[in-house]
Design goal:
8-stranded mixed beta sheet, alpha/beta, Peptidase M14 domain-containing protein, Peptidase_M14, metallocarboxypeptidase activity, signal, 35% helix, zinc ion binding, Aminopeptidase
C-alpha cells in the first residue's frame, strides 16, 4: 500500500511539473496572440499586465496622452541600477502610423522575448541586467483604433492621428477642403516648412500639421526623450514601421545630409541587416530615406538624432519589400517570423551598445545650443 501511494504521488508530481508553465524567477507575460492582429484594448491590457506581473524588472511608463485621451504606454525593462549609477538606455517602438499594424505587434514580440527570456537565456539576462530597455508598441493609439473600425480602404489604410479637421485642404480641382488628422512623423521641428508640398496639405496622408509639435503625441515623445529620466543615457533608438525592408539612417529632411558619425551608424546598420539576412534571406537596403526614396521632413528620428546625445538612431521599414504595393498589413502568420528575424538585428545593436559603453557613465547634462550633432554621444568616461 505504501509503494502504491508513493507511486501515485510521484505521478501527480510529474503531471504538475509537465503542465505548470515554467516561470523562472517569476518572469511571465500575459497572453497576447501573435498569430492574429489585435485591437487597442489587447495592447493596453498586455502592456499594463506585463509590468504588473514582473515588478522586479519591468516598469510601466505612460509618457502622455493622445488627442482622444488614450495613454501612450510602454515599459522599461531592466534591473534597477546600483546606488549612485545610471544605466545606459535603448528605445524600441512600433512607430506612429495607424495602418502599420505589424510594427506594433513586433514590438510586443520584443517584450515577450525580453521578459520571458530573463534568467533563462544568458544573452537576454545580460541585456536586462546591463541596459534599461524602453519599448513603446503603439505611439498613435487613436489612429490605430480608427483603422480597425472598417475594412474600407480609406479607413483601414489610415496613417495619421485623429486631429480635428482642418479646412485649408486642397484637391486637384478644389480648395478649402476639410480633412482630419496629422502625420505624426512629419510633425517634428526639423525641416518643417509651410511651403513643403504635400506635407502642408491637410488632405494629404503626410500632412505635417499647422506647426511643429502641434500634436500631443509628438510632444509627449519630445518631452520624454528630453526628460531627466532618459536624456543623456539613451544610446540607441529603433522605430519600426511598414513596409519596404529599409534600414533608414538620419537625416531624411534633405538629400545627402548626414550626421558627423554617419559612418558608425551605417557600419552597424549593415552588420545588423546582414544578421537578419542570414536567418531567412530577408534583404534590407541601408541608407537615408532621402537618398533612397525622397525627402521627408519633420521626422521623429531625425529630430531626436539632431537634438539629443543619442548615437544610433534608426527607422526600420519591416517586410515585405517595395515590390509589393501598399502592403502595410502582411498576413498575420508572418508576424512571428518577422519578429524573430528582426530581433536578431536588434541583438547586434544591443551588443554594440554594451561594448561601446562599458567604460562610460551616462550624464544628464542639457544641451547648451539645442543641438548635439557635433558631440554625440555625450557620456562621461569612467
Amino acid at each position: 500500500m505504501f509503494v502504491m501511494r508513493s507511486t501515485v504521488c510521484l505521478l501527480v508530481y510529474l503531471l504538475v511539473a509537465v503542465w505548470t508553465p515554467q516561470t523562472k524567477a517569476g518572469a511571465r507575460t500575459p497572453f497576447f496572440d501573435l498569430t492574429q492582429y489585435n485591437d487597442w484594448p489587447q495592447f493596453e491590457d498586455y502592456v499594463k499586465g506585463v509590468a504588473h506581473d514582473n515588478p522586479s524588472f519591468v516598469q510601466l511608463k505612460t509618457i502622455g496622452r493622445s488627442r482622444e485621451g488614450r495613454p501612450l504606454l510602454g515599459v522599461r525593462i531592466g534591473k534597477p541600477a546600483p546606488a549612485g549609477r545610471r544605466k545606459i538606455a535603448v528605445w524600441l517602438d512600433g512607430g506612429n502610423h495607424a495602418r502599420e499594424w505589424p510594427a506594433f505587434h513586433v514590438a510586443v514580440y520584443f517584450i515577450e522575448k525580453l521578459v520571458n527570456g530573463y534568467l533563462v537565456d544568458d544573452k537576454i539576462t545580460k541585456y536586462v541586467n546591463t541596459l534599461d530597455i524602453y519599448v513603446f508598441p503603439v505611439l498613435n493609439p487613436d489612429g490605430f483604433v480608427y483603422s480597425r473600425t472598417s475594412t474600407r480602404a480609406t479607413i483601414r489604410q489610415w496613417r495619421k492621428n485623429r486631429a480635428p479637421e482642418n479646412c485649408t485642404g486642397t484637391g486637384p480641382f478644389s480648395s478649402d477642403l476639410c480633412c482630419e488628422g496629422v502625420d505624426l512623423n512629419r510633425n517634428y521641428d526639423i525641416g518643417f516648412s509651410h511651403n513643403n508640398y504635400p506635407f502642408n496639405n491637410p488632405c494629404s496622408d503626410e500632412f505635417q500639421g499647422p506647426r511643429p509639435f502641434s500634436e500631443p503625441e509628438s510632444r509627449a515623445v519630445r518631452d520624454f526623450v528630453m526628460s531627466s529620466e532618459i536624456y543623456g543615457r539613451l544610446y540607441a533608438l529603433v522605430s519600426m514601421h511598414t513596409h519596404g525592408q529599409l534600414w533608414i539612417l538620419p537625416y531624411n529632411y534633405h538629400k545627402r545630409t548626414y550626421p558627423q558619425d554617419f559612418k558608425d551608424l551605417e557600419t552597424l546598420a549593415n552588420r545588423a541587416a546582414d544578421r537578419v539576412f542570414a536567418y531567412r534571406e530577408t534583404k534590407y537596403r541601408v541608407g537615408t530615406a532621402a537618398d533612397m526614396l525622397g525627402t521627408a521632413t519633420g521626422g521623429a528620428t531625425d529630430w531626436i538624432k539632431k537634438n539629443t546625445p543619442t548615437k544610433y538612431v534608426y527607422v526600420l521599414e519591416l517586410p515585405p519589400d517595395m515590390k509589393t504595393w501598399f502592403a502595410f498589413q502582411v498576413k498575420p502568420h508572418w508576424l512571428i517570423p518577422i519578429g524573430k528575424e528582426t530581433w536578431l538585428g536588434i541583438e547586434v545593436i544591443f551588443d554594440q551598445v554594451i561594448e561601446e559603453t562599458k567604460n562610460f557613465q551616462p550624464t544628464s547634462e542639457p544641451s547648451s545650443n539645442g543641438t548635439v550633432d557635433s558631440r554625440s554621444p555625450r557620456f562621461r568616461q569612467l
